[in-house]
Amino acid sequence: MKKTFAGVLAAALLMTGACSSSDDSDSGSTATKPGEKVELTYWTWAPNMDKVVEGWNTTHPDIHVTVNKQDGGDPAVTKLLTAIKAGSGAPDVMQAEYQKMPTLVSANALADINKEAGSLKAKFPESAWNAVTLGGEALYGVPQDSGPMMFYYRTDVFEKLGLQAPKTWDDYAAAARKIHAANKKQYLGTFSATDAGWFAGLSQQAGASWWGINGDTWSVAINDAATQKVATYWGGLVQEGVIDNKPMYTPEWNAALNDGTQVGWTSSVWGPGVLEGNAASTKGKWKAALLPQWDAASPANGNWGGSATSVTTQSKHKEQAAQFIAWLNTDPAGIKALAGTANVYPASVDSGAALTAPPAFLSNQSDFYTVAAEAAKITKPFTYGPNVNVAYSAYNDAFGKAAASKKAADFPAALTTMQQTTVDDMKNTGFKVAG
Amino acid sequence: MTAVTALPTETRTPRTATRRGRRAGAPYSFLAPALILFVAFFAAPIGYAAYLSLRRVKVSGLGLGAGARTEVWAGMSNYARSLTDPDFLPSVYRIGAYGLIVVPTMLGLALLMALLLDAGRTRVGTFSRTAIFLPYAVPAVVGSLLWGFLYLPRVSPFTDVVQMFGVEPPDVLTGSWVLWAVANIAVWGGTGFNMIVIYTALRAIPTDLFEAARLDGASDKQIAWRIKIPIVLPSLIMTFVFSLIATLQVFAEPMTLKPLSNTISSTWTPLMKVYRDAFVRNDIYSAAATSVVIAVATFAVSFGFLKLVGNRAFNQED
Q1: Which PROSITE patterns match (chain A) (predicted)?
Q2: Could you give the maximum distance between any two Cα atoms of chain B, in Å?
Q3: How far apart are CA A261 and CA A264, in angstroms?
Q4: B190 lies in which domain range?
Q5: Which of A84, A288, B290, B310 shows its CA 20 to 30 Å from the CA of B113?
């Protein structure tokens, strides 16, 4: 009996020991002996990434990468931040959305790989590079994919009503009115209060940049004139009732896309993949175009989605991790696999060679990637702040209320709430905030 | 210490001092695994949460890179912030209203069904009992997803049924309907469990009591009202306390429905606020403070209620 008890005690002590021990591992890269195999773990949520990584593993026997599939951007960040706080459990390599980079850097979760990565700057567009350097000297990741926004519409519905793909937002509003007037059940789109990234992209197109850095001071401009314009525009359409007010990415919305009651979607370059999954029966009826413009004379665009590949501060093999990341995002083989196998839109400027055939769902539109390249080229710069999570959750709550009320005046008011919540949070945490 | 004196010394005389010392240690050895697990996985995390609630992060400069964040002493400021948060009180009122709907409906239904099953004693039997209990075995998240599909007009089969009668069904995930929609899931999931608890208590009542009552000319209704319900009162009180605690901690149902509705905010219930602070805003300090407030409130409400009903709760024989 005594022996059993001692065993239980030992086991219990072991368990408590495992809970409390957290050896700090920010010692940086440890020297590896030649010939020794390095194991790297990679958290990502892009589809088929394990197959992409196979290409690396077969050609690089010394550095073995294991993919650990994540649920998506937000849960992965939560897990990573928890692991960083716990002192262990983080992967070596991590897919990180651009808008989460300042949050992760601020939590000291991402390693600076400027030295290890070499000069890659020329291989990426300015806006993507800016997102991984946060405008400074450090390099917190290599751009992986980008999400220039695009407009998708049902060609059959447009043709029947004699409509063209809207060039401007005025055209879009007119088309929305015409479609809804012709069929009370049909909408050209919906204002989604659950997709802050979507609204941020639309605001980016209008010229907004919600955060800014000036010396050692942050600025927050969520309720600037450009974003006000966007909020007022959508609030007007919702109040009129020509645009739906239900959130995207619900079974309801999927059904609406599939049964032809949602006949347009302001989305991103990855839109066809979503449509294929949600509205398979409408294949061949969709077409992609540039987002409608505020000023047709000087076209602009925003981003929805897009992510970088980063090395975490807990990685003991920064150098090898940086090698893998550089291969994945700049090597022709890596880019080809990203585009063809993982179905993302690679951020690299050399991605054109890998992107020729249009996505299967839009196989009728041979110039899809020409339009996408144009959309990527005119994307405006946008700076994300260290508390995007706070701003985005404030968006959900404030715009949820506004969308439910269907009153145009509530939309710009929701922006004021968002701005206030974001600034208060930053001040409370101790950031220097201007204004 | 008392264990030593409590040892049955009259049956066996202690032989040696060492022997006696080992004997005295025995209860603690038996208790140790439970105690260690209790401390490691219950007391310590609670203590840590209480500690965190008194801390906060202070950022210097732009807050980027290593060493930009330091954890500092916060005093009671997290508590002040959590209690004065404009979203906190509305969430408390909301679960108050939610409790007013859920608790009486659920317990009323549970009692009614338990009495009906008990009155039928042999006829309806196990099938109805299992059928009523089954929703309790469905995890709250799965149940909420199922109901979510039933609530969304375009995917709900109810829509077609109601439209056959020429009525346009309301969108229950908007406006003031939402509270009822969430309460409905809780009632659906919780009635079975409470019914079983009450039913088990009913089965424990000796049948001669009913025979005596019947001889005295009591009807079924009178037996239920004057004999059964008073006797199962302790069970009712227990289920009431459980329901009260479940109400204060409602989380899974509204959290699962949130992406489907504009009306459910991220601070719809107090626990959702804790989740948002901890995992969306990465502010575990303020989340810890709110958790402590909720824990204290739960403790106060449940023990306050037990105090109020006094001895009637657990020893009705006296």
Answers
A1: PROKAR_LIPOPROTEIN
A2: 90
A3: 9
A4: 81-312
A5: B310
B72 lies in some domain: no
Note whether B36 and A16 are within 8 A (CB): yes
pLDDT tens for residues B235-293?
999 999 999 999 999 999 999 999 999 999 999 999 999 999 998 888 889 999 999 99
**Inter-residue contact B103 to B285 (CB < 8 Å):** no
Chain A residues within an 8 Å CB radius of B40: 12, 15-16, 19
What domains are defined for chain A? Answer: 37-147+305-360 (3.40.190.10), 148-304+367-429 (3.40.190.10)
CB contact under 8 A, A401 and B155: no
B-chain residue closest to A6, CA distance: B29
Burial-class residue B2 by CB neighbours within 10 Å (0-12, 13-18, 19+): exposed
Nearest residue, CB atoms, B66 vs list A8, A108, A390: A108
Identify the band that residue B317 occupies on the pLDDT scale cut at 50, 70 and 90: very low
The whole-number mean pLDDT for each consecutive block of 10 residues of chain A, a chain of 435 residues, reads: 41 39 40 73 91 93 93 86 90 94 90 89 86 87 94 96 95 96 95 95 95 89 96 97 94 92 94 88 94 95 93 94 94 90 86 82 90 90 90 94 94 96 91 84
> Do B26 and B125 have their domain in common?
no
- The answer to whether residue B232 sits within a structural domain is yes
Whole-angstrom Cα distance, residue A204 to residue B14? 85
Check CB contact of A244 with chain B, cutoff 8 Å.
Answer: no
pTM: 0.84
| Whether the Cβ atoms of residue B298 and residue B306 lie closer than 8 Å to each other | no
> Which DSSP string corresponds to A416-434?
HHHHHHHHHHHHHHT--B-
Taking Cα atoms as reference points, which of B238, B274, B236, B232 lies closest to residue B254? B274
Residue B243 falls within a domain, yes or no? Answer: yes
Residue B96 covered by a domain: yes
